[in-house]
Structure to design on (285 residues):
C-alpha cells in the first residue's frame, strides 16, 4: 500500500521475502520487544477488542523476546491457516496483495531502537507482529485480510488502489469497534502504539465516526501523526459483510464523481460518536 516502484533488493526472494535470521537479533533487540510488549499487554485489556486480547496468546511463545516467525506461523497455521513471513521493509502493492491473498502476512524483520519506543513512522517487527498477528488468529478477521488481498489485486487493474488503501488504513490499521456498548481498539497502528492507544479512545481531539464504506474511501489520512478521524465498525462480521460480499468495481466508478474528504472533516451523513475538537492536531500544526 505504498505506491512503491523500486527494484527488489539483493538477497530477497522473488516474492520479496527474506529469512528472519532470528539468531542475529541482539539482546538489546529482544529487550526492546519485551519492553514494548509488557507496556501494551498491561494497557490493552479493556481497551482493545476482546478478539485481539484472545489472539495475544498466540504470541506468548516459550521464550520472551522477538517471536521466531516460523514458530509463530506454525501456531497461526493451525488456527486460521495464516503464516507470517519476513521482508526487508515496505514492499510494492502487488507483492503485498499477493501475499495476503495467499494468507501470508509480511512483517518487517528489524526492530526499533530503544529511543524510539513511543513513535515510529515505518512499520517494524513490533508493529507488524504484535499489532497485526493477534487478529489473524480470529477466523472472521483472517478471512477479511485474505479478501482484502484479492480485492487489492483487482483494484490494481481498476486504478483504484488509493481508494482501497484508505479502507485498509481506517480498518486494519486504525479501526475502532463498538463492543459491549463501548468503543474499543482493533487497528494494528493503534494497538502497537502506547500513545495512540490512549489518544484514540480518550482524547477529545479526534472525530469518531460510524463506518461507511464509500465515505471512508473518500477520506484522506495522515501518516505522520495520530489520526484526526477514526471509524467505528459494529462487528467483524458486519465489516466482512459490507466488504467481501460487495462488488467494489461499481463503487470505484461512482467514487470518480465524488470529492475527497479531509482527514478532520465531518459530513452530513456521518453517524458521529464524537465530534473532535482537533485541538491536538492544531497544536502540532
Ligand atoms: N469485495 C471487494 C471487491 O469487489 C474485495 C474486498 C474484500 C476488498 C474485502 C476489501 C475487503 O473488490
Ligand atoms: Fe501495519
Amino acid at each position: 500500500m505504498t505506491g512503491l516502484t523500486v527494484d527488489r533488493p539483493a538477497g530477497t526472494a522473488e516474492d520479496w521475502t527474506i529469512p528472519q535470521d532470528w539468531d542475529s537479533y541482539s539482546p538489546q533487540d529482544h529487550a526492546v520487544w519485551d519492553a514494548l510488549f509488557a507496556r501494551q499487554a498491561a494497557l490493552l485489556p479493556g481497551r482493545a477488542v476482546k478478539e485481539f486480547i484472545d489472539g495475544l496468546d498466540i504470541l506468548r511463545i516459550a521464550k520472551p523476546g522477538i517471536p521466531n516467525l516460523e514458530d509463530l506461523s506454525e501456531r497461526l497455521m493451525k488456527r486460521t491457516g495464516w503464516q507470517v513471513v519476513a521482508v526487508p521493509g515496505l514492499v510494492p502493492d502487488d507483492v503485498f496483495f499477493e501475499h495476503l491473498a495467499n494468507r501470508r502476512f509480511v512483517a518487517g524483520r528489524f526492530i526499533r531502537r530503544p529511543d524510539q519506543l513511543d513513535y515510529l513512522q515505518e512499520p517494524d517487527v513490533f508493529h507488524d507482529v504484535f499489532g497485526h498477528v493477534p487478529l489473524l488468529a480470529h477466523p472472521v478477521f483472517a478471512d477479511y485480510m485474505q479478501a482484502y488481498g484479492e480485492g487489492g489485486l483487482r483494484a490494481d487493474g481498476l486504478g483504484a488502489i488509493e481508494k482501497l488503501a484508505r479502507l485498509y488504513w481506517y480498518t486494519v490499521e486504525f479501526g475502532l469497534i463498538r463492543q459491549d456498548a463501548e468503543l474499543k481498539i482493533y487497528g494494528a497502528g493503534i494497538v502497537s502504539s502506547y500513545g495512540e492507544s490512549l489518544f484514540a479512545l480518550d482524547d477529545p481531539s479526534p472525530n469518531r465516526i460510524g463506518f461507511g464504506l464509500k465515505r471512508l474511501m473518500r477520506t484522506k489520512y495522515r501518516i505522520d501523526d495520530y489520526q484526526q478521524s477514526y471509524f467505528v465498525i459494529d462487528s467483524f462480521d458486519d465489516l466482512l459483510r459490507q466488504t467481501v460480499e460487495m462488488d467494489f468495481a461499481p463503487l470505484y466508478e461512482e467514487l470518480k464523481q465524488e470529492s475527497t474528504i479531509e482527514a478532520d472533516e465531518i459530513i452530513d451523513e456521518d453517524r458521529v460518536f464524537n465530534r473532535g475538537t482537533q485541538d491536538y492536531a492544531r497544536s502540532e500544526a
In short: The beta strands are 83-87, 104-108, 176-179, 182-185, 207-210, 229-233, 272-274. The mean pLDDT is 95.
